[in-house]
Amino acid sequence: CIICHGDVPHNKDKETRSFLNMHAFYTACQTCHIVAKDEQSRYSFRWYDKKSGQQTVNPVSLVEIEDKYAVGDKSYYPTYGNYGAKIAPGQFEENIFDFINGVENKEFVDRYLEEENRLTTQQKSQMNEVIHKNLSKEPVACDECHNNTDPYIPYAELGFPPRRVEELANSSVVGMLEKYKEFFIPDFIQPQVQ
């Protein structure tokens, strides 16, 4: 996904794009954009190492944040999300976890990227439909993960400590995004015309 869409892929909705792009730092695109069709086919989630792409255990830095918090280390500023890993969905086949990569044929994507400048608008559109055919029509909404009844992402199973699970499940940001439909930049931040 990031080959075409970059590390900060959300840019359509200016009110929420910074929140969404923040999530892209520790959550794979597939986590929100490829949703299981029904409850029985609901995905499992695991961490993968951002450098190797391989499944990894819960990030060490996530535990370090909690350890420093527990002993009251005031010199430490937590960098939530800077884990060196991302959460991604997958399924078990014969007891082996397999990540959902969203694209069935990487060679097709590579060919598209090679030939993109020579393709007509119609050809690009057709190839894009094939590349994106597994995407859900609607991505996971904020309140589907940030709730304390049945969050889409199982934070505790992924190694988030209880205090952090509580913070994520009761996110005030979700309430703010739902409640306030217009955001205003204070005048003192905007450049003044002279």
Structure description:
The protein is of the alpha+beta class and 194 residues long. It has helices spanning 2-5, 17-23, 29-33, 60-70, 106-115, 121-131, 142-145, 162-169, 172-179; strands at residues 44-49, 55-56, 85-93, 96-99. It has a four-stranded antiparallel β-sheet. The radius of gyration is 19 Å and the shape is globular. The termini are far apart.
Summarize the entry for a quick read.
This protein is α+β, with helices and mostly antiparallel strands and 194 residues long. It has helices at residues 2-5, 17-23, 29-33, 60-70, 106-115, 121-131, 142-145, 162-169, 172-179, and strands at 44-49, 55-56, 85-93, 96-99.
Report helical residue fraction.
25-40%
Task: Work out the oligomeric state of the chains in this entry.
Answer: single chain
Shape: globular
Total helix count?
Answer: 9
The residue-averaged pLDDT reads 80
Note poorly predicted spans. Answer: none
Radius of gyration: 19 Å
Tally the beta strands.
4
List the helices and strands and how they pair.
Layout: H1 2-5, H2 17-23, H3 29-33, E1 44-49, E2 55-56, H4 60-70, E3 85-93, E4 96-99, H5 106-115, H6 121-131, H7 142-145, H8 162-169, H9 172-179
Antiparallel strand pairs: 1-2, 1-3, 3-4
Keywords:
194 residues; 4 strands
